[in-house]
Amino acid sequence: MKRRKNIILILLLLVISIMTVGYSTFSSQLEINGTATITGIWDIEITNIKATNVCTDCDAGTPSFSKTDAAFDAKLKKPGDTITYEVTIENRGTIDAVLEKIDLINVGNVNEDIIFTNTNPARELGEGETTTMQITITYNPDKDENPSITTKEVLGKIIYTQK
What we know:
The strands form three sheets. Strands 1-4-8-6 form a four-stranded antiparallel beta sheet, with no helix packed on it. It has a three-stranded antiparallel beta sheet with strand order 7-5-9, with no helix packed on it. The chain has a two-stranded antiparallel sheet with strand order 2-3. It has one helix at about 1-25, and strands spanning about 45-55, 65, 70, 80-90, 95-105, 115-120, 125, 130-140, 155-160. β2 and β3 form a beta hairpin. It is α+β, with helices and mostly antiparallel strands. About 15% of the residues lie in helices and about 40% in strands. The chain has one domain: Immunoglobulin-like (Sandwich), CATH 2.60.40. The chain is rod-shaped. The chain contains one helix and nine strands, in the order αβββββββββ.
């Protein structure tokens, strides 16, 4: 009986050894490797600014711009005088853009004698597309006396977001 138990024990050890070798033979380790690359480019910028409608005796100055900033210095003489600037905006990137909002904010004094208005650029701006907007500065035509404040500075923000 003891011998029989020893034989069963040896047979069990042998079966376990065979199963271990069989498992290692038929198992394999899998590896997954991957790479992600961002190829989209965000590049919405101002590419030109020019005075397009300058009243007689007015001075549109020399408008200047960089990728994200535009500046101009309009000099108006009398009520009703206007100067219009055309600002060109281009999507030089590869990501389509959507106009979120335009803000024209008074900086410093609030001068109702000088009126800033604008047209909206394109709502959507796809890759390689350009749009223009006009910013018009007007000496209030209803003014009939010399203003006490003769300057007005505004900060404009044109905000595009990705589509």
